[in-house]
Amino acid sequence: MRRADKVIISCAITGSIHTPTMSPHLPVTPDQIAQNAIGAAEAGAAILHLHAREPETGRPTQDPEAFKRFLPQIKDGCDAIVNITTGGGLGMTMDQRLAAAKWAAPEIASMNMGSFNFNISGAAGRIRDFNHEWEQPYLMMTRDFILSNTFTQIERAMTELGDFGTRFEYECYDVGHLYNLAHFADRGIVKPPFFVQSIFGILGGIGAEPENLMTMKSTADRLFGNDYYLSILAAGRHQFPFVTMGAILGGNVRVGLEDNLYLGKGELAPSNGAQVAKIKRILQELSLDIATPDDARRMLETKGPKNVGF
């Protein structure tokens, strides 16, 4: 693992997991997404991981027209690296999932590294009345849902987006996903440095136990040596303890309302920027320096903001 002198903070602004009923602070309109993203950058995030929502209902969408309503505003308002999802919303086709990133040609796009059972139905049991009709069925269908990322699908996404010079945030929900990345690296389809986002606490993926973080890191060390940067995210209440542990080990961190709606126990986060400010404060108390967007560009060898499509 490459131990950087500075820690990259990524912020995942809205995602496609949480629904509007869960928090009044979840950004869903273009202006809300843009302002939350800019606020996160001002608070210290070097990378902004972005999904889009239908503004009327908050339902996830990968329509490039939705991204066009906030990406230029974000680019004008801050210099953070934009990272566009290719996971999209649950149940979308690959054409739908890739559409926004192929239009935007961003510096970074997310890349799920394997298929797995992705179950977020438990969230529905904690809510009595939903604000929108789509929310409960969307959550409950994941009891019988596989997030599909076959080798053919992954190779297609890597190749089509790689043609734009886009680099990737490799989202690894389990140990086997690291081996999948090594497969594509061995074939020369993707090149180092690899930005490996290890994800903990999603039902169907690896659990949020400290031993599992050590296993993911030691496996990545064995597979990629000094050719990768480790980043950590964890779902829900595990977010801040887990990413802090990852930073102590020399990794980078991801926070944001996609992954966790809370700032502390029982306290909803009022914004993405509030979560970024909290983790930045923790990292600085540990005498760790925070990477600027330009630091992150140098580390990850991205193509720069002048070469994107928006």
UniProtKB/TrEMBL annotation:
Pfam families listed in its UniProt record? BKACE
Question: Could you name the domain of life of the organism this protein comes from?
Answer: Bacteria
What are the GO MF terms of this UniProt record? 3-keto-5-aminohexanoate cleavage activity; metal ion binding
Query: Which cofactors go with this protein?
Result: Zn(2+)
UniProt keyword annotation of Nucleotide-binding present: no
For this UniProt record, give its keywords in alphabetical order, as a comma-separated list.
Metal-binding, Transferase, Zinc
Which protein, by its recorded name, is this? Answer: Uncharacterized conserved protein, DUF849 family
Q: Which organism is it from?
A: Mesorhizobium australicum
Phylogenetic lineage: Bacteria, Pseudomonadati, Pseudomonadota, Alphaproteobacteria, Hyphomicrobiales
